[in-house]
């Protein structure tokens, strides 16, 4: 991608404030996932939006299967975007895998981030001896098999489970962005995410964090939020949302926005 990174990843800067706020979407969505959140923050922040290279809104030719085998190249993309924009301080909101991308970026460049807000974050999805990530390895392999066998059927089944709440518009929106992704890229990135284990680096995070967790999330048990709180190295808080689902910015933006605002003001 080289010098065309800003164009390739559809980087946009919107809003009228002086402080910089980065909104980074999670797996299966693109930057449009923040559209119902933006109006709450545009008067007060200069907001950086971009698409992960795996998003369906990005030319799939940019996805290098040899490069994006871990989360580190995604971190490179984020930091290169911020450097290209001349950003030297920002608050960062990351959903799902982008929460972990933000954690890794803050370890590399702690001076760049004033605050990390982590929505639906998990350092490891697989269960371990003394850790409940939510999934057994056999369960994950069944998910991968279902994606390979019939991607359309998998999306139709997964989208309502992930949204959780009875919000048909959110299910439609999540389905749309999942269908926009090329199935082989979706499967490859899913494997990268589910094979990741960032538990060992959490203590290196010194930037203050706010962990936002819904009461019932098919992808991330509530115990994971407490694990993050107890193992992240800096000052951090947990905000529990009394709703279901992995995508509160799609299903309950009016509930999430004031929580984000409160977290950013601390």
Write out key terms for the chains shown.
single chain, 266 residues, alpha/beta
Structure in words:
With 266 residues, this protein is an alpha/beta fold. Helix content is 42%, strand content 17%. The chain has 11 helices and 7 strands. The chain has helices at 5-8, 38-41, 72-84, 97-108, 137-149, 151-163, 168-180, 183-194, 222-231, 248-251, 253-265, and strands at 12-14, 19-24, 45-50, 90-95, 113-119, 209-216, 236-244. Strands 1-3-2-4-5-6-7 form a 7-stranded mixed sheet, sandwiched between helices. Helix 5 crosses helix 6 and helix 5 (137-149) packs antiparallel against helix 8 (183-194). It starts with a helix and ends with a helix. The model has no long low-confidence stretch (mean pLDDT 96).
**Category from helices, strands and their pairing:** alpha/beta
From the N-terminal CA to the C-terminal CA, the straight-line distance is 37 Å
Q: What percent of the residues sit in helical stretches (DSSP H or I)? A: 40-55%
Radius of gyration: 17 Å
Major beta sheet, strand line-up: 1-3-2-4-5-6-7
**Arithmetic mean pLDDT:** 96
Shape: globular
* N-to-C SSE string, H for helix and E for strand: HEEHEHEHEHHHHEHEHH
Main sheet properties: 7 strands, mixed
Number of helices: 11
The unreliable regions are none
Q: What percentage of amino acids are in beta strands?
A: 15-25%
Record field, number of beta strands: 7
């Amino acid at each position: 991608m080289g010098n065309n990174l800003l164009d390739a990843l559809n980087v946009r800067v919107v809003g009228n404030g002086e402080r910089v706020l980065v909104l980074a979407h999670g797996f299966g969505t693109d930057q449009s996932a923040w559209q119902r959140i933006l109006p709450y923050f545009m008067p007060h922040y200069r907001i950086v939006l971009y698409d992960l290279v795996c998003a369906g809104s990005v030319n799939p030719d940019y996805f290098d299967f040899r490069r994006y085998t871990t989360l580190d190249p995604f971190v490179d993309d984020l930091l290169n975007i911020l450097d290209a924009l001349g950003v030297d301080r920002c608050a960062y909101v990351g959903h799902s895998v982008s929460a972990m991308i933000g954690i890794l970026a803050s370890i590399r460049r702690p001076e760049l981030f004033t605050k990390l807000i982590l929505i639906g974050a998990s350092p490891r999805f697989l269960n371990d001896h003394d850790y409940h990530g939510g999934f057994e390895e056999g369960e994950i392999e069944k998910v991968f098999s279902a994606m390979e066998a019939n991607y359309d059927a998998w999306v139709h089944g997964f989208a309502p489970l992930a949204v959780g709440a009875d919000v048909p518009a959110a299910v439609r929106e999540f389905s749309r962005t999942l269908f926009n992704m090329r199935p082989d890229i979706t499967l490859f990135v899913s494997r990268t995410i589910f094979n990741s284990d960032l538990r060992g680096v959490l203590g290196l995070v010194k930037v203050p964090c706010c962990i936002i967790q819904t009461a019932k999330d098919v992808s991330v048990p509530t115990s994971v939020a407490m694990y993050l709180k107890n193992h992240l190295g800096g000052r951090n808080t947990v905000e529990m949302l009394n709703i279901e689902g992995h995508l509160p910015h799609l299903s309950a933006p009016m509930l999430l926005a004031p929580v984000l605002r409160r977290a950013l003001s601390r």
